[in-house]
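Suppose a colleague, Dr. K., hands you the sequence of a protein chain of 656 amino acids and asks what its three-dimensional shape might be. Before reaching for any lab equipment, you can write down a predicted structure in token form. Begin with the sequence itself:
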Amino acid sequence: MSNNIVEINYHQTGKSTNTDELGMREMQAKVYAKRKSQYLLVKAPPASGKSRALMFVALDKLANQGVKKVIVAVPEKSIGKSFKNTELSKYGFYEDWIVDPQYDLTLPGGDTGKVDKLVEFLHSDNPEARIAICTHATLRFAYQRIEDDRDFDNVMVAIDEFHHVSADDTSVLGTALKNILHNSTAHVFTMTGSYFRGDSAPILTIEDEALFDKVTYTYYEQLDGYQYLKSFGIDYKFYQGTYLDALPKALDTTKKTIIHIPNVNSGESTKDKYGEVDQIFDVIGTIVGQDENTGIYTIKDKETGQLLKVADLVNEDGRERVQEYLRNMTAPEDLDIIIALGMAKEGFDWPYAEQALTIGYRHSLTEVVQIIGRVTRDSSNKTHSQFTNLIEQPDAKNSDVEYAVNQILKAITASLLMEQVMAPQIHLKPRKKDEPAQSSDGTSLRIKGLHEITSDKVRDILENDMNDLQAAILQDTAVQRGITGDVSAEIMNKELIPKVIMSRYPDLSDEEVEEVRQYTVAQTNLQHAETESTVDEQGNTNDFLKMADKFINIDDLDINLIDQINPFQRAYDVISQNINSSVLRTIENMIDAKKYEFDDDELVYLYPQIKKFMFEHNGQEPSKDSRDELEVKMAYALSTLRIKFARKRAENESED
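The predicted structure, expressed as tokens, is then:
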């Protein structure tokens, strides 16, 4: 655990799982407090109780707010079970959640009939037609059959796993939602555990998103309030060759583990997914047998001799038996390892899972969040959960080195974002004269020169959108290039980050952009800072924060000092610690090669000048940090030439 890039410890307060007098957990009570909002967006992690939060709000709207019907749409049928009949009155609420079986459209049956049934539900005067559960697809097809958006008047439309929706014009569900918002009196309730825009098209347009009240419940609030789980780690392991050779060192068979093998179209895949499963079996141990009824394998662990129960979700043959077994598990001893490709991610519930071992970089931060959510449920069998990503290192001789470098940079970026998501938000406030810098309980810091918040728009961004803003910043191409440290802190903090803020929130004034920028830069730097204390000769304790390579006394915290620090310097430090020097030089060359666009004629012209420069300077290479513009250009040209030579060498070797 000590080698993790991200290692966070929690306090096991029990707050996120304890319930109040209405039977609500902490997150559910926060949502219920905003039950009168016509449009509500709930951002909360897996296992926080979003499904039941929706039930509480929906029942109140049916009883007290003039809503006549509720439609709950889930991405796939299996998730429909989250909204089955639930006794709420038993724990203090005034009504139970009851769904008429004929309107549970996630039960087995033909899809065409389900679309007909949803249309009938929407138009029915039957008092029993109050709540319908369906898939996103059923809602989408039913909407195409409905001629008037006003049919959704006084209807609550609830969309689970809201990140599936897109504001793109080609998204039927996204278009349906937009029309329902603008052309009817419908109430809209949306919820997701991963609202990170930037993976693809935005979920909502900026204008439509502004219509929604938001409830944000962070990963930290959720995990800190558990009873059993007390720490979480993220690690990135790098390998050369095939991942199957590196797997024995990465896999801990004593932990309940989900192994996600790479997509067959990815560079990490061997292109034989069934063969990969067989080889993973060999890494684990020796097959003893397979249960004919459940499809579960028993494998004797080669290290411990223990008999392990292993589920194969990669092979299609017999998969339904395996899935049925997984749905009905009730104890930790029912299963030890799952091997999957595209399954066992979103909505999959195995609370005993301790470790997610994912091979190959995942392009979507949403997917990373979903996988992590599989192992961060609270369970008495575990005190630590772990996400490990096994990624192929670039080889300077490989013609695909640019792709490999980008994958590593994105992986480190994802780990930084997850660190911010998993860790507590620090409450930042402007510091006035004679005020202490730190609160007595250490939950807030006061910073000299920090702007006062002047508008509700800024306050809403800082309180409800910080993780999503940080995700957008980290996914920006210009920012990612600067993550390795070759962009100055001033350019990063005062040019690149504000551009992302202005793009994401175009209606902010210049003053509001500066306020958001200051709090974002300070928050990001302080979350990555390390605290150190010293005692002076008089016995006084002085607290210092180490941000990048700078030590700042907490009493001297000033936004002008913080602005001199690249908030993503730690990403470069992580790369340096995890990759050998030759690979690190390859990464630096790749990034440098992107900074100038050279055509072949320019490189032919510059090459002899580079040789002359090195001869005149006793072999010293041109420096990209030089004040001489020509020397800087030669330095970047040299990086470009090295990449071209490496690719040519790789092509020649492949021809041989």
